[in-house]
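Hypothesis: this fold can be encoded by more than one sequence.
Test: take the structure tokens below, design a sequence, compare later.
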């Protein structure tokens, strides 16, 4: 009798094991098939297999997560996307119930709340409530994985995009997350800075979240350049120069020496110094394209670069008046930076077809080298866009003749 009962129990256990293995195999096969179909954009077919996976094996969080992510994609492209978003949230919450210690699930639910908050036509109070809930989920994700860079980065990026909508307490928390990410990997400013700028339009805020070191300031300068925010350039550039000098004074001094050699070369190229006056004809401009030995003739700047011209200045305060013309592209005009003997004396957008731009400077007088840098060239021949800068003649006003 005992042997019979033992054999029956063994058969039951074997049957249970075989059934479990069959169910696991069926669920995993369905899940992998769903993933394959999803990559091929066969989303309706993929959903059938995801449904099979979660039905057969309702204790696997990854299956619910995958199904949720598919529905999120459908929500983005379907006219009635909200119903897919609702289901996606429910599935992600189920995944979270099955694996409550994984930070990725509350993080993703928070992102979905932000999707709700930005739906067209949503009431302002409803949008604010979704943002409030999103921050709760973000904080939960952070508590589960406070040192995880990926978690911090997603939180930072999402919070940067809604920074203007946060209350003061949440702003302070978001600020720390953003600053942490930019401290760890300054290059991620490529994604965080634009989101924060679109949200806040506050460059001082962006400067505050940036760490005060050369990597941080260099990343911020790239953002200024990429988004044509040249009005904020000067201080950031000065910071970079100071850090470079502190980090490697020898290399920085060599850079200054190269610049001075260029200036001396311009001065020494003058055949008759007595022929120089307080003006510069357009034909006197000479320079090179940035990163190239190709010449820029007669002040016609079709690429980034710097041009120079010798000029005689009287001692005292003078106004250097530069005739310039710009051609815009992608909604932005060319930006010029004006130097005198290598020192910056002014900068501006050249936002007119033909205009005189005036720059004041106190000088000891004598032979000087005037420079103009073009820093934001851009264009697309197919779209008919081409940003160019044309520098004409220069006149000097002020100080005694």
């Amino acid at each position: 009798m005992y042997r019979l009962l033992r054999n029956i129990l063994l058969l039951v256990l074997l049957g249970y094991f075989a059934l479990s293995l069959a169910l696991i195999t069926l669920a995993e096969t369905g899940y992998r098939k769903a993933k394959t179909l999803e990559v091929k954009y066969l989303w309706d077919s993929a959903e059938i297999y995801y449904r099979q996976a979660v039905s057969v094996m309702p204790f696997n969080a990854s299956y619910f997560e995958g199904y949720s992510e598919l529905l999120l994609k459908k929500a983005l492209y379907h006219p009635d996307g909200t119903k897919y978003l609702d289901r996606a949230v429910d599935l992600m919450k189920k995944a979270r119930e099955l694996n409550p210690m994984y930070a990725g699930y509350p993080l993703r639910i928070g992102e979905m709340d932000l999707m709700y908050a930005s739906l067209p036509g949503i009431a302002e109070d409803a949008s604010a409530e979704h943002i409030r809930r999103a921050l709760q989920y973000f904080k939960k994700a952070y508590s589960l994985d406070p040192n995880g860079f990926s978690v911090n980065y997603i939180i930072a990026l999402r919070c940067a995009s809604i920074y203007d909508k946060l209350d003061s307490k949440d702003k302070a928390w978001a600020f720390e997350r953003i600053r942490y990410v930019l401290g760890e990997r300054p290059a991620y400013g490529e994604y965080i800075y634009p989101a924060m700028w679109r949200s806040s339009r506050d460059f001082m805020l962006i400067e505050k979240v940036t760490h005060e070191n050369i990597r941080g300031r260099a990343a911020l300068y790239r953002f200024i350049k990429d988004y044509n925010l040249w009005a904020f350039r000067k201080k950031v550039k000065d910071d970079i120069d100071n850090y470079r000098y502190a980090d490697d004074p020898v290399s920085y001094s060599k850079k200054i020496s190269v610049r001075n050699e260029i200036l001396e070369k311009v001065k020494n190229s003058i055949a008759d110094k007595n022929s120089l006056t307080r003006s510069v004809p357009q034909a006197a401009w000479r320079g090179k394209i940035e990163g190239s030995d190709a010449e820029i003739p007669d002040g016609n700047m079709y690429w980034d670069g710097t041009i120079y011209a010798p000029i005689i200045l009287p001692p005292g305060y003078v106004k250097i008046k530069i005739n310039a013309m710009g051609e815009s592209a992608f909604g932005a005009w060319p930006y010029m930076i004006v130097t005198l003997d290598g020192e910056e004396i002014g900068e501006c957008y050249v936002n007119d077809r033909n205009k005189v731009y005036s720059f004041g400077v106190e000088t000891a007088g004598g032979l000087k080298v005037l420079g103009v840098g073009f820093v934001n060239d851009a264009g697309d021949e197919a779209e008919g866009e081409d940003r160019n800068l044309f520098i004409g003649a220069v006149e000097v006003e002020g100080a005694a003749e």
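Residues 273-397 form a domain with the Jelly Rolls fold (CATH 2.60.120.260). The chain has a mean pLDDT of 90.
Hypothesis status: open.
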